[in-house]
Amino acid sequence: MNALAITDDANPSIYTGVSNNGVWVAVDDYIKSLKANGIYTKLKAVYLMIGGSASTHKYNLKNVADTDAAFRIMWFGSGIHSQNGFQGNGANSYGNTFFKPNENLTTNNESFGFYSRTNIDDNSVDLGSYDSSGQPNSFIFPRRDDKIQTRLQTDNYNETPTNLVSTGFFAASRIIAASYSIFYNNINSTINETSIGRAPANYHIGNMLDIFFSNRECPYYFIGQGLTITEMNIHKTTVIELQTALNRQV
User: Fold this and answer.
1) Cα angle at 230 between 140 and 143, to 5 degrees?
2) Which are the contacts of 124, defined by CB distance < 8 A and separation ≥ 6?
3) Rounded to an integer, what distance in angstroms lies between the CA atom of residue 48 and that of residue 174?
4) What is the pLDDT of residues 143-173, one digit of tens each?
5) Domain 43-232: which CATH number of 2.60.120, 3.20.20, 3.30.420, 2.70.70
6) How far apart are CA 56 and CA 70, in angstroms?
7) Of the candidates 79, 101, 102, the residue with the CA atom closest to the CA atom of residue 205
8) Cβ(241)–Cβ(30) under 8 Å?
């Protein structure tokens, strides 16, 4: 919070009806909940999108150094930064996290996801690591032809039977070689697709491979080690509680 220049006092914050102290308490509660359930250490890059600007939204909660090695975000294009997080323009805006799965995670042990405030059916990715065809990749299309399409350490598209909304919590997690799990709001699905390794490309926010640009508004992104179904559901609840405390839930 010091890095974001948000003082711990009773002054109004940029969040409706929430004081600066209220923002501190919301973040504190988020961290304590994840720590109490053994999840916090498994997360390697967490972007709370607090502060309302590109300069505050860039910080990785797990390491607030302003360096590539700390996985702070470098922003490109003309996306919008507000109290509701980051919203791409669907054309050229994105953030480079400098987080490469093949350098910072292990095979069969990876999770990632985000919280979306925008419901659209389109050909866009909000968080992904994509190199090229034939390489292992990890990404989520939250609503593409009314389905969720994903990869997680695979080279094949996998999809859910149907998904009519792209708002709320979306994530994927792999903890074994033979399959991975997709989480979207109150539903989770198992994808029987064997891992072929870790993606060699940086995770991008708001696009992948400099295409599939998103214009969804998102106040939260994360990358980390694999989480169990129970852990991911706790994570989801904690994320929703944080958004609710800041009056930006959907």
Assistant:
1) 20
2) 88, 90, 141, 207, 212, 213, 214, 215, 216
3) 23
4) 999 999 999 999 999 999 899 999 999 999 9
5) 2.60.120
6) 14
7) 79
8) yes
